[in-house]
Amino acid sequence: MNNLFNLLVRFRGLFLFLILEGLAFVFIVNHSFYPQTQVYNALQTMQNAYFTGAEKAIAYFSLKQSNEYLANENADLRNQLDYYKQQDTARSTFSTSYMGKRYTHHPAKIAQLSTNKQYNFMSIDAGELQGVHSDMGVVAGNSIVGIVVNTSPHFASVMSLLNLDFKISARLKRNGYIGSLMWDGIDYREMVLNEVPQHALVMVGDTVETTGYSALFPESLLIGTVMSYNVQKGSFLSIRVRLAIDFKKLQYVEVIHNNLQTEQRYIEDY
Amino acid sequence: MKGFLRQFFWAVLLVLVQIFVVNGLQLRGAMGTLVVPSIWFFYILIMPLQTSRLSLLLVSFAMGIVVDSFFSTLGVNAAAGVLVGYLRPFLLPLFISGEWKEKKTSPSIYTMGIRYFFYYVILLSFLFHFLQFFLEVFSFNEWYFTLLRILLSSIASAVLMMLFQFLFAKKNH
Questions:
Q1: ipTM field
Q2: Which of A21, A47, A186 sits opposite B79 (nearest CB)?
């Protein structure tokens, strides 16, 4: 017993080192993707309160850019509205399978954002009280941004496209060929579209868009354009996609709620 | 008491610089993921020579947790910082001459000389980023890419720390 005590005293530096490293390791493992502890939520709220403050100052300096962005978006929406007005009068006599509103949009502002890690997340200032819950898609304007993974009452944590765990199906607008889209962890403006059949005709500059298969995002949302492509081993194309959005300029996003998600998941699982 | 306050001031200042300045560095394209410098652990490097091993470890851990809580990487900075705090007493004697060891002073360009201080800073930066980046990706897949990030980031961190030292180090210290 005495010897053990002597040993502990003699190597107290090493023991404390191991204990602290172990503790940090436990934090990392528990924290990695779906942190749910109260401690985390408390920290998150504090941190978000702080970053919302910092963001306010930053937002002031980029008012001009934001205004341009909003003006563009308004114009875009008006165009779409006109288009649908025409469509509606043309087919008002048809009945669709779901007459209600399929998707609901919640506006949100980014509270914190990273682009320089391999697993990037962001937090937004809309949470459970605004009707945001995990597994909802997040978009900016007409392009996709990420997926909600965790929520607190006032904030939500979003897995960004720039995350090695992010994977979603996407297609080429030109011919509808489908592939699987992911980030390779290198450039925050580029992603990779894999598993596109080799016989698909691809050209640099082609639009890549969402498929609507995932129940997270509506169909035909913009992802980016083709930068280059090459043949992977086997008979598939690997396409480098230049993202339409610049994450470093992102400030406002919208969370998309698919009102039929539960129903769609239910029928897909059984 | 005055000495303690001064130490506390430097620790807080470095954490603030890390949060507001260093993490705000905007590098374009792939450089943004390749060069991710850290400066907060510079405080661990310049803590007074007579600091005990246990205090080094506890301070590193506490500062790491504070930094982590701001960047949703809970544990990563703490683990890397604790490694630096643990290795400092073993590595520092390699770079500092015997006569300084007895005095009440901190490692700096004046006590160690610019060259040896730089070697000391870059070695510990490398060790810090080595653990930080491997814990962040949590896999050895594409280890050469992680290693490239480690190398570039250690150089960037070491340069920032030398800059910090040139700006604030006092001769009479």
A1: 0.84
A2: A21
